[in-house]
Write a structure and sequence with these properties.
The protein has 176 residues and is mainly alpha-helical. The protein has 6 helices and 4 strands.
Length: 176
């Protein structure tokens, strides 16, 4: 058993609040969800390493927990929690009823507002926010230039200029 198969399901259980004695989801279902979520996340986020997702044996290689790939751990678990919450919402909406007979009525759909709050503020929102944050961080580190309006400390120039120091550098190399 890979390390992730014992660690990531516990993280997902914390995210969805499924730690009661009668758990809603089995470990196998959560593990399957993590592999499916990982495959989906890999389509939305480019990792530094390539993950392989085996949908038959439900395995992820390399193991994100064993190698401490925290970005993968966070994204995989949040996406899994989001998917499980969405499944619970879909199941709950199928069981809701709304009946009106004359002056009396029964409406069990009012409790769905809580599910909507979980979907808009819970793991789904956290996943989207983290994904955007990682994309922003990556774009900020994509390139850069070192420029200064002041002359280099080793040069004999006193004017704050770019071109003069560059010209002096190229002259010293015999290129200009």
């Amino acid at each position: 058993m890979a390390v992730w198969q014992s660690v990531l399901p516990n993280i997902v259980r914390h995210l969805i609040g499924d730690f009661s004695t009668s758990q809603t989801f089995t470990d196998a279902r959560i593990t399957q969800g993590i592999v499916v979520a990982g495959l989906m996340v890999a389509q939305e986020h480019t990792f530094a390493i390539d993950y392989t997702f085996d949908l038959e044996s439900y395995d992820i290689t390399p193991d994100p927990v064993a190698y401490s790939y925290n970005d993968a751990i966070a994204l995989f678990t949040l996406k899994t929690a989001c998917m499980l919450n969405q499944n619970q919402y879909i199941t709950a909406t199928g069981t809701g009823i709304k009946v009106k007979d004359g002056d009396s009525s029964v409406d069990t759909t009012a409790g769905f507002g809580g599910y909507k709050d979980i979907l808009t503020l819970g793991p789904c929102a956290a996943y989207q926010k983290l994904l955007k944050s990682m994309a922003l961080t990556r774009s900020m580190n994509a390139g850069g230039a070192v420029m200064s309006p002041f002359s280099h400390e080793n040069s004999n120039l006193t004017m704050p200029t770019f071109g003069v120091y560059a010209r002096q550098l190229f002259d010293s190399l015999g290129r200009c």
